[in-house]
Design goal:
By secondary structure, the chain is mostly helical. The chain is built from three helices and no strands.
């Protein structure tokens, strides 16, 4: 990656981080979403090759739902 590309990427990142996010644009972090995110990290770390994003999302939420169903705490 050239120095020019690195600078352009850094500027793009700064512009993105300056965007103000409103509470309307942010979805609340529920237990289900948190668990789906945790499952997603495991699914992605074990994936090999090309993956279907919709299938991975569905699988992550299935795991989250399963964990919430069997929650004994």
């Amino acid at each position: 990656m050239s120095q020019r590309d690195k600078i352009a990427l850094a500027e793009e990142a700064k512009t993105y981080s300056r965007k103000k996010r409103t509470t309307k644009s942010m979805k609340p972090l529920t237990s289900r979403r948190y668990l789906a995110g945790q499952a997603l990290s495991g699914i992605l770390s074990n994936s090999k090759g090309q993956i279907q994003m919709n299938e991975v999302r569905r699988s992550a939420y299935e795991w989250a739902d399963f964990m919430l169903e069997t929650d004994e705490d």
